[in-house]
Amino acid sequence: MSAPFGLLQSKTLRASGIDICHETVRFWVDRFGKIFAAKIRKKRVGHHSNWQWHLDEVFVKINGERFYLWRAVDHEGEVLECFVTKRRNKAAAKKFIIKAMRKHGSPRIITTDKLPSYGAAFREIGVADRQLCGGRSNNRCENSHLPFRRRERAMQRFKTIATLQKFVSYHSQIYNHFNHERHLETRHAYKRKRTAALNEWFQICAS
What we know:
Elements (H helix, E strand, L loop, with lengths): L2 H13 L6 H22 L8 E11 L2 E10 L4 E7 L4 H15 L4 E4 L3 H10 L5 E3 L5 H6 L1 H9 L6 H18 L8 H20 L1
Parallel strand pairs: 1-4, 4-5
Antiparallel strand pairs: 1-2, 2-3
Helix pairs in contact: 1-2, 2-7, 3-4
């Protein structure tokens, strides 16, 4: 279940005197999550930056088996792509990078950790000269995993790889919609952007 979707819908209905359970919200997410995510994605076309991308991967356990969630974000924290694979090797890294570039273009700088698979994949693609790694340069992407980890704990993990891939595709778009870099905004600007995002969200839900 996506946090903004579940919380906003349940609060709206509770204000009208209607009480719902978590299972109902889960059913709504399965039914309408793809539609809402597609609408948000369409509205945000061209909002991301191709100046610098950050790539990172985290492991996710499903029924005791380890999988890897790859994530690409721009330098402002916009989530560009999420991709789940069973292995963390050159082939998986290459497939993930090509998929992200086909959708969002080619960045000037690609920041990663020191995983050798990135370097091997970049050399095959022909963008090895754009790689930047080392130190804390990739904190932007590592921090973007935190909202996912919180939802993973709340949902008591995932049951299948298909469910995980579907969830992250929904969650990343809704996260983009409500992510306003609060620590960089004045209180007045943040409240104005938050109100605009909420109004737009209710329009998406009503349409």
